[in-house]
Amino acid sequence: MPRPAATVPARGAAGPVACFSASGNHFATGYPRPVRQPQPAATVDQGRSVSAGQPDGRAPRRDDRQRVRDHLGLSIVATILCAPVGALGLLHALRAADHLARGDVPGARRVARRGRAWSLAATAAGMLLLAALAATGGGHRG
């Protein structure tokens, strides 16, 4: 199979330049050139951007977003103490960060509250388990 004469570097390619033939197909895979999707416009509610952060569509800067505590540290400790319940707290903490990244502050707060509740329950269960093991000598007969 003869190689096409003209190659065009891919737009926005990270790392090595991906080569496409004149017909638009990639040499190595044969797949067509990726099409860039247009970015959604920011929806503005009461002068504040809701979906994309800034009214002009730029991503929000860290100091522009409202602060929502995701309780990630607590959920990690809870997962160490009581893995099944603590994992739920960890999952909710990560989901809270995702909601905040999308600009959904009320959703981030709601999910963070659930994560804190699961993490506190896991911490309490883990402490009770450790106290029970300490009181019984850890199950070691001697």
From TrEMBL:
Region (Disordered): 28-67
Source species, domain of life: Bacteria
Segments passing through the bilayer: 72-97, 117-136
Pfam families (UniProt xref): CD225
Keywords: Membrane, Transmembrane, Transmembrane helix
GO cellular component, one term: membrane
InterPro entries for this protein: CD225/Dispanin, CD225/Dispanin_fam
Localisation per UniProt entry: Membrane
Primary location recorded for the protein, binned into one broad class: membrane
Residue stretches of biased makeup (Basic and acidic residues): 58-67
Protein name (record): DnaJ-like protein
